[in-house]
Design brief:
By secondary structure, the protein is an alpha/beta fold. The chain has one domain: Oxidized Rhodanese, domain 1 (3-Layer(aba) Sandwich), CATH 3.40.250.10. Helix content is about 40%, strand content about 15%. The protein contains 5 helices and 5 strands, in the order E-H-E-H-E-H-E-H-E-H. Strands 1-5-4-2-3 form a 5-stranded parallel β-sheet. The N and C termini lie far apart (about 30 Å).
Length: about 110
Amino acid sequence: MPAEIDPRSARTWLASQPKPRLIDCREEDEFALCHIDGSELLPLSRWVDLAPDRLADPGQPVLVYCHHGMRSMQAARWLEARGHTDVRSLAGGIERWAVELDPAMPRY
């Protein structure tokens, strides 16, 4: 089971990794409303088609997030099942990130 990581720990973890990938698995309209700086959009609705090419290195650290943490856990499990060894899902998603770390971020 992929690790779930809280926003404060996630921020520290991202800063400590040599080349982490921060993946937003929400949809385009959600990403347009708000997203975490440095994140890449890879919608869960297109995950199976795009992830194999976009996330081809199974050893690269990956943090996946969504709105509340459900879709990101599904995406993280998918990666882990395909051999990715350093995958995390943001607990509480971007909503919790905004509440705890970035109160100016738009919320929905």
